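Sanity check

After download, print the first record. It should look like this:
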Amino acid sequence: MKSQDLIILEKLRAGDSSAYKELFDLYYMPLSVYSLKYCDSFELAEDIVQDLFIKFWDQKIYLKLDEAISPYLFKAVKNNSLKAVKKQSKYYFEEIEDQVNVLMDDEHLDIEFLEQEKQKLYQEIEALPLKSKEVFKAIVLENQKYKDVALELGISVNTVKTHYSRALKQLRSSLDVIVILLLV
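Expected structure tokens:
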């Protein structure tokens, strides 16, 4: 008995375009969930998987595969997810750098203003969900590493990263003050 992958692969090679729909229906959701393991947005995960299916069809990648399709798809999703996260991080750090440049402008270095902003930030931190608040304080205010925070809180490093990411998203309006706290 042949696996479903091999049957779909044979149909694709024979020019049966309905096999592409079978492939999509079979793997779209599992690949999207798998991608979510590497990125923190389901929308991004879906985009990554959709782009892969488009490339798979346009470049006729199925003609280059010898056996099962799934190993190729899962490996490609992992690689593309990691690339997307790396690309997002690059833009995120450019955003921080822009904020630092604005802050370093003399007219924005008003100590009284910064103190007020810092107080607002502390209020926003206190309003975070409990775990996100604990993680954020440990990483930013106590300068702990993800691994140390994970051990201290009894959670995985990935869970620490998720809580930290969520906290940063909620505190996005206070990004400039966070940068100052990190620099001081």
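If your output differs, re-run the checksum step. Summary of this record's structure: The radius of gyration is 23 Å.
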